[in-house]
Write a structure and sequence with these properties.
The protein is mainly alpha-helical. Helix content is about 60%, strand content about 5%. It has 11 helices and 3 strands.
């Protein structure tokens, strides 16, 4: 799919065509994608960013080296803090969790040697990290969902992507808040209208018809109100019609951004 996007953009803007043949046998092929974990590869191929699973697998050597030199869960927790993760009990197994978000992966998905049984055999019964230990080690690393492409222009593009996604999120949150407040205003108005109508004397069947008419008018106003805000959300999403790093690059490339095309070309060779 990415190769097709690159070809179409090259043709549209008269750019030099690149070779996108499989380079899997190339000894110089970048190794930043996780080759030994299909789940991580699938997520990363779709998003174009390192998954949390990919990050932990990347740190697997560090994790095993840490295990070689310790004998307690407390020491293991302390070692994991250096790479910004923690180990927690979840259900009947263990997970590695990002200390800065809710992202987590099964320990056994990283390596079978890290399953609950084998870790318990090495370290004893599981002991959760204490509140006093919930502090970061100075200069500790952290998962950042970094882009996976090797391109000199990727950093600037990635900064633009993060900024635009933040603006998109802020715009949608503002619309949602305005809609919430406006909806409450409408409900309050019609509640007061209904309460005020009770002061006027009417026959029972006339009141029923009148109240039904008020209800229909309220529902019609709410329907129009919802439609107005749906259109506002649609406009924001159409202005920035992407939700991932890869789709951002594809959108920019189709607009003629050669830097985005260069990054996509690099991805095609990974």
């Amino acid at each position: 799919k990415l190769q097709s996007v690159c070809r179409n953009v090259e043709k549209k803007y008269g750019l030099k065509s690149e070779n996108y043949l499989d380079n899997s046998k190339d000894k110089n092929r970048p190794t930043n994608l996780i080759k030994n974990n299909e789940k991580a590869q699938n997520m990363e191929a779709h998003q174009g960013q390192q998954s949390f699973l990919g990050y932990v697998v990347e740190k697997k050597s560090f994790i095993f080296e840490t295990l070689e030199n310790l004998a307690t869960w407390g020491e293991f927790h302390s070692g994991l803090r250096k790479i910004g993760i923690e180990v927690k009990l979840r259900g009947r197994g263990l997970v590695f969790k990002d200390k800065f978000s809710e992202k987590m992966v099964k320990c056994s998905d990283v390596d079978r040697e890290l399953n609950f049984g084998k870790l318990a055999k090495r370290l004893g019964d599981f002991i959760a990290i204490s509140d006093k230990e919930e502090t970061l080690t100075p200069n500790s690393e952290k998962y950042t969902s970094k882009p996976l492409y090797n391109s000199k222009n990727k950093e600037l593009l990635y900064q633009n992507y993060k900024a635009e996604m933040a603006e998109r999120k802020t715009a949608l949150e503002k619309i949602n808040q305005e809609e919430k407040e406006g909806y409450q205003t409408i409900k309050t108005k019609w509640k007061e209208n209904k309460k005020a109508s009770e002061k006027y004397p009417m026959l029972r069947h006339h009141r029923q018809k009148f109240m039904l008419k008020l209800k229909i008018m309220e529902e019609t106003e709410i329907l129009d109100f919802r439609q107005e805000f749906n259109e506002k959300r649609k406009a924001v999403r159409e202005e920035r019609p992407y939700t991932s790093w890869t789709s951002f690059l594809q959108f920019k490339a189709k607009q003629g951004n050669e830097n985005a095309l260069e990054v996509l070309r690099t991805k095609s060779k990974i």
